[in-house]
Design goal:
seven-stranded mixed β-barrel
């Protein structure tokens, strides 16, 4: 393995699941949960879609940045309409990688760009404040139960046979 590849494969620490948010239908308010089952198509009880956008994640560390860009306190995680709030691990470094949370395994598939609702939710400038801080989408690799406080562990890349 090259030194560069080794740097890509190395993470400083394991993160933590700080919050779980579900919306029962489109445009519904996000409601906090302590535990939830992740099924093959996404979070049980969430209106989300299956596939590469089955689960959305955002880093807790980005909330103060978003607030600062709005000239306000950090927004509440539920207002940002992402399913999972994690801390302590850089999601930007995980595109195309798998991570384990509780009994589930997710694969980070791409950025979760902000939608125009951020102007409604966060006020003027909300959309721009979220750009680059909107989080990531993931698909479900292995269903399982997750709970607030669970470890968020990037999984090692396995070499092809």
């Amino acid at each position: 393995m090259s030194a560069f590849q080794e740097m890509i494969e190395t993470f400083a620490q394991t993160g933590q699941l700080e919050g779980i948010w579900l919306r029962s239908e489109r445009r519904a308010e996000a409601m906090p949960e302590m535990t939830v089952w992740i099924t093959a198509s996404g979070l049980e009880g969430d209106h989300g879609r299956a596939g590469k956008r089955a689960v959305t994640l955002i880093q807790a560390e980005h909330l103060p940045v978003i607030g600062a860009m709005l000239g306000e306190d950090p927004p509440g995680a539920g207002a940002l309409r992402r399913n999972l709030v994690v801390s302590g691990v850089n999601l930007n470094a995980l595109k195309g990688r798998q991570l384990a949370i509780g009994g589930a395994i997710l694969e980070i598939t791409g950025i979760c760009a902000p939608c125009s609702r951020m102007e409604e939710t966060l006020g003027k400038g909300g959309y721009s404040a979220m750009r680059g801080h909107g989080g990531w989408c993931a698909q479900v690799v292995e269903p399982g139960k997750i709970a607030v406080g669970d470890a968020v562990r990037p999984l090692a890349v396995t070499a092809p046979d």
